[in-house]
Design a protein that fits this description.
Strand order of the largest sheet: 3-4-5-6
Distance between the termini: 86 Å
Order of helices and strands: HEEHHEEEEH
Largest sheet: 4 strands, antiparallel
């Protein structure tokens, strides 16, 4: 009785398969016929060779930068009620010092301070906006990225 041995695919055939798989996400590539060798010099016919086509690249160019819905300048000059409406939130704390007021708002990952002082007509309006990390262990943030987490009421 004769032992049956199985012929292994050639390294070149395996390399072509690996290249075809790795390039499957790239668009615009032509169909590549692959010939799977058996380790010896026998080659299959071109008609019997399987083909691999690259998936079309549906990705478009990176999107244009998104203009933030709310910017610090949108709050400056607003009164307390307008600031609440623009932020779409009520403050979690209010500190009054003399004629000034500091309103604290909790964002998803940050704390927003809205500082109000009387303007030249005596109306208490937002004079400054500051964003900071909500916890000392949280990564640092800036005012704009903190504002991006609020849902403005407009």
């Amino acid at each position: 009785m004769q032992a049956v041995t199985r012929k292994r695919p050639s390294i070149a055939g395996a390399a072509l398969i690996a290249i075809g798989i790795s390039l499957s996400g790239c668009g615009g590539l032509p169909k590549i016929p692959l010939r799977l060798g058996t380790g010896d010099d026998q080659q299959g016919s071109a008609a019997a060779a399987p083909t691999v086509s690259a998936a079309p690249n549906n990705a478009t160019a990176s999107p244009a930068p998104v203009t933030p819905r709310l910017q610090p300048g949108d709050l400056v000059g607003a009164d307390a009620q307008t600031a609440d409406a623009l932020l779409g939130a009520a403050p979690i704390g209010i500190i009054r010092e003399g004629s000034g007021e500091i309103r604290r708002y909790a964002g998803a990952d940050c704390m927003l301070l809205v500082i109000l002082y009387p303007d030249n007509r005596g109306n208490r309006t937002v004079q400054a906006v500051e964003g900071s990390a909500a916890r000392t262990s949280a990564p640092p943030t800036n005012t704009q990225s903190c504002l991006n987490g609020f849902d403005p009421g407009f």
